[in-house]
Amino acid sequence: MPMKAVFQRRLQKLKHIRGVQQPVFSLICMLLGISFTVWFTLLLVFIIVPAIFGVSFGIRRVYMKSLIKLFEWATLRMERGAKEKNQHLYKPYSNGIIAKEPVSLEQEIQEMRRGSAEPEFDMSDIFYFCRRGVESIVDDEVTKRFTAEELESWNLLTRSNYNFHHISTRLTALWGMGVLIRYGFLLPLRVTLAFTGVGLLVVLTSIVGLFPNGRMKNYLSDKVHLMCYRICVRALTAIITYHDSENKPKNGGICVANHTSPIDVIILASDGCYAMVGQVHGGLMGVIQRAMVKACPHIWFERSEVKDRHLVAKRLSDHVADESKLPILIFPEGTCINNTSVMMFKKGSFEIGCTVYPVAIKYDPRFGDAFWNSSKFGMVNYLLHMMSSWAIVCSVWYLPPMSRMEGEDAVQFANRVKAAIARKGGLADLLWDGGLKRGKVKEVFKEEQQKLYSKVLVGSSEDRSRS
Amino acid sequence: MGSRASSLLREEDIEEIKKETGFSHSQITRLYSRFHSLDKGENGALSREDFQRIPELAINPLGDRIINAFFPEGTNKKYTAREDQVNFRGFMRTLAHFRPVEDNEKNKDLTSGEPLNSRTNKLHFAFQLYDLDRDDKISRDELLQVLRMMVGVNISDEQLGSIADRTIQEADTNGDMCISFSEFTKVLEKVDVEQKMSIRFLH
Q1: Phi, psi torsion values for A360, nearest 5 degrees
Q2: Using the beta-carbon criterion (under 8 Å), do A445 and B59 form an inter-chain contact?
Q3: Which chain A residues have a beta carbon less than 8 Å from that of B55?
């Protein structure tokens, strides 16, 4: 009997509590509903609608300016912290560790010979090779292009911090807030936008694909592509400045640009319409590729076809010959470089013989490093890094079109274009192959060095025999 | 993605390396970052493959000899844990040979009375590039091999042989048909070794 009474009393208590909680519960539901609606409306008004029409409110630029001020303040605090503890702050030197003298092999050896009566070989000849070798161990031009660039000031991302022990509590708090904002607010927002952008791309291009070929279809395809890429740009919070838009690539040409990351495609394609070139992938990429090609002709190669250089060249030239088709977008380096230099351009795209429109892309590393180190990080990991950075800030320069000149072969033309891009973007112009990221350097370069030295040796003996 | 290498190097280590090699604090941290970026296996030591991955070194005709100079004979525990690996101290010790000579050098090497970047030590470094079997003398064979590395296939065996013979004739003073270190030093006494075997490290 007492049990029943206790039980009944308990039930009444619960009903009372529930009665109180009922309005609280519905209040919470209402608040969630309202916040969702507000959020989506804001998203639509501030991000998606401008993307459709290609306008910008300028919010991202204000954001960028305030971030710069924040980073400078953070670096000052760290310097102050280091000074107080009387320790040294690690400062990456963008000028390099050593100062190399640009003396060639011949110059150096002539210098050393000058004192003596020109013997054929001197034991001191070894000094040149020795010094050059050790210089390259300390600082070489190639290996540092395949890792992320080091920054002068800290941008509140752990991944680019070298001075852990100099962070004060205030700075740590700021960093903590930064983490919250980036992972709690920016990342979900960006992921939503990314899914929206990609989803719309697939759906809308498939719809456009149903239209009959003609002007209407091309017009719609252009609009659809532009809109979806613009949404993707906002999904990365990319703040892009386009220069010299009068040189934008036109139909029947090839657009070449330096390559830092897969995002380059989104950056260029949100400002103009291009025909993409690439290998056929499976999975999500494959779905996107198949949908895109329905709306306008892109060039996708099967894995087996990529090896056949003639086939590749033929497809590219056929596409270029058709004036109604969009300009092709190609990255001749063949791999991602860390945006401090431009490496060897593969000559394939320069053999086709059409107008080349060079484009230089330079990222500002302070807000987020866009370089994809494909040997260290996979694609998903990379995208996550991208979407949890502060922003991607870059400048795009459209250079005036270039064509192959008389008496110039494909390699020379490629080097000329490369030099122009490097100059405009403020990047180092290197002759080294981007393939050195994974492969070994060819023996022929060592043989060239040996030939040079032999010429110095044998050359002096020829002079001797003449005198 | 950004090197945290400087935080892995302890202050005591930096001080010891400073005393032994004469590099400044910032130079040591900078070089440690470089060491770390070359160390693909991330095990705190460099192997020969790590060096060969540098393209400019791979095309240097004497690249292999230079790499060899970083791996001293025997296993001095301070510099190498295993025979085919060199740790940061060993790396710095070899690089120290290329520091420019300053007039008022006060620091001394712990084991010998001379700093690592003295003229004698620089010459000794170059001598070791020639001396393949590390027996403290350069034989005709060794000289031929090194010459062959430097010229590749562009010069005939006879011509190379006569170059080697002439060089040994000019340098050899005690008639043993080999070049010892003192004979080597004598031949190069007029050469500005300090300048040719120095690298300008920025502060």
Answers
A1: -110, 130
A2: yes
A3: 140, 142-143, 432, 436, 441, 445
Distance from CA of A186 to the nearest CA of B (A): 21
**How far is residue A166's CA from residue A78's CA, in Å, rounded to a whole number?**
6
From first to last of its 203 residues, what are the pLDDT tens digits of chain B? 334 444 577 888 888 888 888 888 888 888 888 888 888 877 888 888 889 889 989 989 999 999 988 887 765 666 666 678 888 888 999 999 998 887 555 444 444 567 888 888 899 899 988 988 888 888 889 999 998 998 888 888 898 888 888 888 888 888 888 888 999 898 888 888 888 888 888 87
- Tracing tokens 């945006």 back to the chain, one arrives at A339
Least Cα separation, residue A180 to chain B (angstroms): 21
Q: Are A133 and B57 in contact (CB under 8 A)?
A: yes
d(CA A122, CA B143): 12
- Total-model pTM: 0.75
Which of A134, A161, A454 is the closest to B155 by Cβ? A454
Whether the per-residue pLDDT at A47 is higher than 90: the answer is no
Task: Return d(Cα B150, Cα A348) in angstroms, integer.
Answer: 34
Buried b (16+ CB within 10 A) or exposed e, A254-280: bbbbbbbbbbbbbbbbbbbbbbbbbee
One-letter amino acid identity for A272? G
For tokens 């990342």, the residue is A187
Strand partners, A397: A243, A360
What pLDDT, on the 0 to 100 scale, is given for residue B1?
Answer: 33
Q: Give how far A155 is from chain B: nearest CA, Å.
A: 12
C-beta separation of A424 from A135 below 8 A:
no
- The kind and range of the H/E element at A301 are strand A299-301
Read off the amino acid at residue A370: A
Nearest to B94 by CA among B85, B86, B82: B86
| Residue B154 near residue A451, CB atoms below 8 Å | yes
Q: Is the pLDDT of residue A433 over 50?
A: yes
> How does pLDDT run across A449-461, given as a tens digit for each residue?
888 888 877 765 5
* A160 contact residues in B (CB cutoff 8 A): 1-2
Which residues touch A214 (CB under 8 Å, ≥6 apart)? none
Measured N-to-C along each axis, helices A187-209 and A379-387 cross at an angle, to the nearest 10 degrees, of 120
> Would you state the structure tokens that stand for residue A13, as one six-digit string?
């208590």
Q: How many helices (H) and strands (E) does chain A have?
A: 15, 10
Q: Model ipTM?
A: 0.89
